[in-house]
């Protein structure tokens, strides 16, 4: 069982930066893939970024490549999402999620990147980008 708590959301102007943090409690966090998802107004929930259990592989959706960075610290049971050059289209509720990684694949495992593959979810944090 894993409990996830997001923090760091808020309001920022276009071009600004925010850093989101996901704090996990529970056992074996280092065996879990962690993803950041977002759901904009009137839209579905989509993956933004994900990091594999081994921290050897990351995934970014195309719209955030070069602007967002996901990182994890297994010693602190945290996963961060650094968001730079924010755009109005980034406005959404951001969710942290976790699921058991493909540990049998070792460092070749890719992170899960589909919301239906994730078992544990945080409560979400609002990010609002305005001009």
Q: Which class best fits the helix and strand makeup? A: mainly beta
Radius of gyration: 14 Å
The best one-word shape is: globular
The profile of the biggest β sheet is: 7 strands, mixed
**How much helix, percentage-wise, in residues?**
under 10%
Strand tally: 11
Poorly predicted tracts of residues: none
| Beta fraction | over 45%
- How do the helices and strands follow one another from N- to C-terminus? EEEEEEEEEEE
Distance between the termini: 40 Å
Mean residue pLDDT = 95
Topology:
Layout: E1 2-7, E2 10-13, E3 18-26, E4 32-39, E5 45-51, E6 58-60, E7 68-73, E8 78-83, E9 92-100, E10 120-121, E11 125-130
Parallel strand pairs: 2-11
Antiparallel strand pairs: 1-3, 3-8, 4-5, 4-9, 5-6, 7-8, 9-10, 9-11
Features of this protein?
50% strand, 11 strands, 7-stranded mixed beta sheet, 131 residues, mainly beta, 4-stranded antiparallel beta sheet, 0% helix
Q: Could you please describe the fold and organization of this structure?
A:
The chain is globular and about 45 Å long. The strands form two sheets. Strands 2, 4, 5, 6, 9, 10 and 11 form a seven-stranded mixed beta sheet that branches. A four-stranded antiparallel beta sheet has the order 1-3-8-7, with no helix packed on it. Strand 4 and strand 5 form a beta hairpin. It is built from no helices and eleven strands. The protein is an all-beta fold.
